[in-house]
Write a structure and sequence with these properties.
Number of strands: 19
CATH architecture of the largest domain: 3-Layer(aba) Sandwich
CATH superfamily of the largest domain: NAD(P)-binding Rossmann-like Domain
Distance between the termini: 41 Å
CATH class of the largest domain: Alpha Beta
CATH topology of the largest domain: Rossmann fold
Length: about 500
C-alpha cells in the first residue's frame, strides 16, 4: 500500500467495543479511517483519535444522506452498529431500519463493499430473537446492492466484552450455579484479537467479497465446561454447575442483571441466544484467511491479564448513549457545593480524583456506596458492577460504576452524570485549581446537582440530603489524604 496516499475506510461503531479496537489497528496497517460517531467529543477522547489519518464525522446512523456524503471515496465500510442497549426491547426493528439505511447510503456513495460482524448460530427455525435480528441485518445491508462480507462469531473472549464479563462475574460470585439447561449447549468462542484479525484480513482478501464466513477458535465446548475453565483461569475452586429446566430466559436475564454488570435489557437477548448451538459450519474463513486462533484458555488468560493490569482497551459499556449535559436553566435544581484546600499539588489532587470508583471505591464509607449500588441493581439500574475501564484514566463517555463521564478536562475538571435509577437527573463534578492565596496549595470543589422530576424527585433529594454530610464530607477528606500520598502525575 502506498503510505503517501492511504486508502480510506469507513467505520461505524468506533466508540464501541469492537470498533474502538478495530480503528487503531487499521491505522497501524496504513489506512485512513473515517469514523461516524453520535458524539464527536466522546470519540476524540480515544487515544488514537488524534492521529493524522483519523477523520471524525458526527452524525446519526439513521441519517441516510449524511451517511452517503460521509462515505464517499471510501474503499470499504465496516458496519459495527448494534442498538440492543440503546433501543431496548424494540432493538430488532430499530436495527433493521438502520441496516437498510446504511445499505442504501453505501450504494449512493459508491462504496464497493460492506464488512459486517454478525452472530454465529444454526440457520433455519428456532433461532433466538437476538440471532434472528443479526440475520435480518445481514440481508438488509445487502438490499442496497453493495456486496456484503459477513463474519459470524459466537462468544467473543476479551477484556471488557459483554459475554466475557457475564461469564467472569457469574464464576467469581457463585461457587454453586443453578443454571438453565442451555449450559450443555455447544459454543465455539473466539478471542477478540482473532476477531480483529479476520475483520482486517477480510478487507485485504478480495475472495471474501460477498461471502458469509463463520469464524471461531479451535475448540468447541459446552457452556458448563467454559465456566469451569474460567474458574481455573481465575484461580478459583471448581464451580458446581447444576442445570434445571425451570429457569426461563426472563428469569435467567434477571439473575444475570443482579449478579453481573449487564442490565437485564441486554442480558435477556443474550440469555435467549444461549439455547442455540453456535459452531462454525465449515472452515472457509481459515482457508481464505489462514490464521492460528488462540485456544479458549489462552484467550481467557490474555483477557484476565489485561484486566489485572488496568489496560482494558475498550469495554461493552463504552457504546452506551452518553447523557447530554443537563440543561440547568429553568425548573428546580438542588445544589450541594463543598470545597477544601490542601497543600497537595493540583496534579496530585487530580490523580486522586481521576481514580475514583471501581475497585478503589470512593475514599470513605464505601459500604454506603455498595448499599446504594445494590439498591440500584434491584430497581433495574446498573449498580456498581460496571466498574471502570482503567485504574487511573478517565475518558469522555467512559462508564464508571453507575456514573457516565460527561465532562473531563485533565487536570482541572471531571463531571459525572448518574445512570442509576433516579426520579431526576444528577451530576457530580470536581474542579481542581490553585487556592486563592498565593502558595496556599490546591482548592478542590465538589458539586452535586440534582434536577428532580416531580414531587417524588423533590422528596428523594431531601431524603438523601442528611447522608451527603457523611458521604461527601468523607469523600473530600479521603481525596485529600490520597492526594497527599501521591507524587505529582502518579
Amino acid at each position: 500500500m502506498d503510505a503517501a496516499e492511504p486508502s480510506t475506510v469507513f467505520v461505524t461503531g468506533a466508540t464501541g467495543y469492537i470498533g474502538g479496537r478495530l480503528a487503531p489497528r487499521l491505522i497501524e496497517r496504513g489506512y485512513r479511517v473515517r469514523c461516524l460517531a453520535r458524539s464527536a467529543g466522546k470519540l476524540r477522547a480515544r487515544p488514537w483519535a488524534g492521529h493524522e489519518h483519523v477523520e471524525i464525522v458526527e452524525g446519526d446512523a439513521a441519517d441516510e444522506d449524511r451517511l452517503s456524503t460521509a462515505m464517499r471515496g471510501c474503499l470499504a465500510a465496516y458496519y459495527l452498529v448494534h442498538s440492543m442497549d440503546a433501543a431496548g426491547p424494540d432493538y430488532r426493528r430499530h436495527d433493521l431500519t438502520l441496516a437498510e439505511a446504511f445499505g442504501r447510503a453505501t450504494m449512493k456513495a459508491g462504496v464497493p463493499r460492506i464488512i459486517y460482524l454478525g452472530g454465529l448460530g444454526e440457520t433455519g427455525e428456532g433461532l433466538s430473537e437476538h440471532l434472528s435480528s443479526r440475520r435480518e441485518v445481514e440481508i438488509a445491508l445487502g438490499r442496497g446492492g453493495v456486496p456484503v462480507t459477513v463474519l459470524r462469531a459466537a462468544m467473543i473472549i476479551g477484556s471488557g466484552s459483554a459475554s466475557f464479563e457475564i461469564l467472569r462475574y457469574l464464576v467469581e460470585r457463585l461457587p454453586i450455579m443453578i443454571t438453565p439447561r442451555w449450559v450443555s449447549t455447544e459454543s465455539q468462542p473466539i478471542a477478540v484479537r482473532d476477531v480483529l484479525f479476520y475483520l482486517i484480513a477480510a478487507l485485504e482478501t478480495p475472495a471474501t467479497i460477498g461471502k458469509t464466513l463463520d469464524i471461531g477458535g479451535p475448540e468447541v465446548w459446552s457452556y458448563s465446561r467454559i465456566m469451569r475453565e474460567m474458574a481455573s483461569a481465575l484461580g478459583l475452586r471448581r464451580r458446581l454447575v447444576i442445570p434445571v429446566p425451570v429457569l426461563t430466559p426472563r428469569l435467567s436475564s434477571l439473575w444475570i442483571h443482579l449478579v453481573t454488570p449487564l442490565h437485564a435489557s441486554i442480558a435477556r437477548p443474550l440469555a435467549e441466544g444461549l439455547k442455540n448451538r453456535v459452531v462454525c459450519r465449515n472452515d472457509e474463513a481459515v482457508r481464505l484467511m489462514p490464521h492460528q486462533c488462540l485456544t479458549i484458555r489462552e484467550a481467557m488468560d490474555a483477557a484476565i491479564a489485561k484486566i489485572h493490569a488496568g489496560a482494558v482497551e475498550t469495554a461493552w459499556s463504552d457504546a452506551g448513549v452518553m447523557p447530554g449535559d443537563p440543561s440547568w436553566a429553568g425548573g428546580t435544581v438542588f445544589v450541594d457545593r463543598r470545597e477544601v484546600v490542601t497543600a497537595a499539588t493540583p496534579a496530585a489532587v487530580w490523580s486522586a480524583v481521576s481514580a475514583l470508583g471501581g475497585e478503589r471505591g470512593y475514599y470513605a464509607v464505601d459500604w454506603l456506596w455498595r448499599l446504594r449500588g445494590i439498591m440500584d441493581r434491584l430497581t433495574g439500574g446498573p449498580g456498581l458492577r460496571r466498574g471502570r475501564r482503567s485504574f487511573d484514566e478517565l475518558r469522555l463517555g467512559d462508564a464508571l460504576d453507575f456514573w457516565r463521564v460527561t465532562g473531563v478536562d485533565p487536570p482541572r475538571r471531571l463531571e459525572l452524570t448518574a445512570e442509576m435509577k433516579l426520579p431526576g437527573v444528577a451530576t457530580l463534578s470536581f474542579d481542581v485549581d490553585s487556592a486563592p492565596a498565593p502558595g496556599a496549595g490546591t482548592r478542590l470543589i465538589m458539586t452535586a446537582r440534582f434536577r428532580p422530576r416531580g414531587l417524588l424527585g423533590i422528596a428523594y433529594w431531601y431524603s438523601v440530603l442528611p447522608l451527603h454530610g457523611i458521604v461527601f464530607r468523607g469523600m473530600l477528606k479521603g481525596l485529600v489524604r490520597a492526594a497527599g500520598s501521591r507524587m505529582p502525575g502518579q
